[in-house]
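Hi all, long-time lurker, first post. I run a small reading group and we've been trying to get comfortable going from sequence to structure in the token notation. Rather than ask abstract questions, I figured I'd post a concrete chain and ask someone more experienced to write out its structure so we can walk through it together at our next meeting. Sequence below, copied exactly:
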Amino acid sequence: MDPEDKRLLERTYKLSEDNSRVLKKLERRFKWAFIWGVIKVAIIIVPLVLGYLFLRPHLDEAAGQFQEIKEVFEDYRSLPF
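-- Answer (accepted) --
Happy to help. Here is the structure in token form:
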């Protein structure tokens, strides 16, 4: 093996090591980006779902009371004044 081939082979080896290091960093970055994305979505979705589950009975009760008030006003309108 002549010195030029050896130099090219060493340069190629160094470049491949550098590429490997960069790719590992990118892979780690993509993994953390995915994890943080899931956490952000969970921070938004979980309170919405829990709020819906816990507030649903109260909202149904309020809707029932609103319906009763609406019926009272409709009865009031039907009175002959």
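A couple of things your group might point at:
The longest helix spans residues 3-77.
The chain has one helix and no strands.
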